[in-house]
Design goal:
The chain has 268 residues and is of the alpha/beta class. The protein contains 14 helices and six strands. The protein is globular, with a radius of gyration of 18 Å. Mean pLDDT is 91; it is low at 109-114 and 263-268.
């Protein structure tokens, strides 16, 4: 596996560039195109400058629920010219309290009987079933050259973000091993991620007694999710088509995220 490009910020714990990942045909994903992160509410002015300046960030895909956005506030990037798209993956009912949406978004105690607390497979499948239009829109935005450098984030940067990024990477031919390993990289920052969430009034009550090991992403969750995509849709391509993402968009996604063929480069 290539070295992970962590982006060290003062106000976020789980930020990285998914460039440099290997594809099944020997290419690698481009750096500086797709970033992933946890909550961006705590970004400092230096962080904002790093993202909008050095990283040339132009688009943010916010996968949090409406309740999370209301309770956490707009965030410092909202004061910049970075385009924001709110694409909640959590089912919402008009008029329900914001905190109810937060509790539904952060599965602190909601694992099913027979599953370990950090087995997130059921939740990941649920994102596809509950918000197929939002997953599709996320893929279209990532594929759009006009989006520029694009950052996908939720609260922890590992579950909702993990699913959208894994689908995008799988669609452009990143090896399954690399997709899974990118997903579990969040485990390296899990202590800091949990500490940030517990310190927030929005998430702290629900996560006050949550153990670090119960939050730690494990490879099995992503492997079982990808197995489900294979069984239910015939693979990531079939999933994308079922979501209404057309072939032209998938071609654009590939051109955006993946570098040129090594064979073509050698011939130049």
């Amino acid at each position: 596996m290539p070295r992970v490009t962590w982006i060290e910020l003062e106000g976020a714990a789980n930020v990285r560039d998914v460039g440099g990942l290997p594809t099944v045909d020997g290419r690698t994903t481009r750096r500086g195109v797709l970033l992933r992160a946890d909550n961006l509410q705590g970004l400092t002015p230096r962080d904002v400058e790093e993202l909008t300046g050095a990283r040339r960030l132009r688009t943010v895909l916010d996968l949090r629920s409406t309740g999370e956005v209301h309770l956490e506030g707009p965030g410092p990037l909202r004061a910049t010219d970075v385009a924001h798209h709110h694409l909640t993956l959590i089912p919402e009912t008009e008029g329900e309290p914001d905190q109810v949406e937060v509790e539904r978004a952060i599965p602190s105690r909601a694992h099913r009987a027979g599953e370990t607390p950090n087995d997130m497979t059921g939740f990941y499948v649920g994102y596809l079933e509950d918000a197929p239009d939002k997953v599709a829109e996320a893929l279209r935005l990532i594929a759009d050259p006009a989006s520029g450098a694009t950052l996908v984030h939720c609260a922890a940067g590992k579950d909702r973000t993990g699913v959208v990024v894994a689908v995008a990477l799988s669609l452009v031919g990143v090896t399954r091993e690399a997709v899974v390993q990118d997903y579990v990289k969040s485990a390296e920052r899990i202590e800091a991620i949990l500490a940030r969430l517990q310190a927030s009034p929005t998430y702290g009550g629900d996560l006050a007694e949550r153990l670090v090991d119960d939050m730690r992403p494990v490879a099995g969750s992503m492997e079982r999710f990808l197995d489900h995509v294979d069984r239910a849709y015939g693979g990531p391509h079939g999933l994308a088509l079922s979501l209404g993402v057309d072939e032209e968009t998938l071609e654009r996604l590939g051109r955006r995220l993946v570098g040129p063929s090594p064979h073509a480069a050698a011939a130049l």
